[in-house]
Amino acid sequence: MKIADARQIYYAKQQKLSEEMKKVSKQKEKAAKNSLFSEAASLELSYKEIEKVYNENRKVLESIMEQKTSRVNSEALKQQDDAIKDSFDDLGKIIMVFRRMAKGDIVPPGDEKKLMEYDSKMYMMAKNMQAFEQQMRKKIKQHESLWEDEEKKTAPDDPNEIADNSEYVGSLPNIDVPEITLDSTDIEGGE
Asked: The pTM is what?
């Protein structure tokens, strides 16, 4: 079962259990107010039973949220690692463009632009060295772009979405919401 589906199911159960606890609590108060002590005692037992199931369901919800949080953090770290790797790859390419220009070689305008955007002083130094080297050399080498073969980068996927769509690891208990049915005419009759 996907984490999002599990969270939704157990959250709905938690809401229903909370409503049942409120309902039983109100009935218990009315029974005590009307001096119906056996009904109040029975309602207290029912309340404790619902509370036990409520706490069990809460623990399952916490487990689901821990897995989601862990998955979100893992995905965010992976994306951060990828971004750092891409950053270092780009830095390596910038240095390669600088080196090629400094040797007097010709690089594509797009590569020159990337160098200029990275550091304008570094770009000017490379251009000056390129002009000087081209005057000294007879054969000038022309290079292809270092960035042309890259696929268009898309925005990274949302780690929350990835976590929600991943499978819950482990087994999820079947938690039934107990339905408490009491004859409310006895409880309300004394008012």
From this structure: 0.68
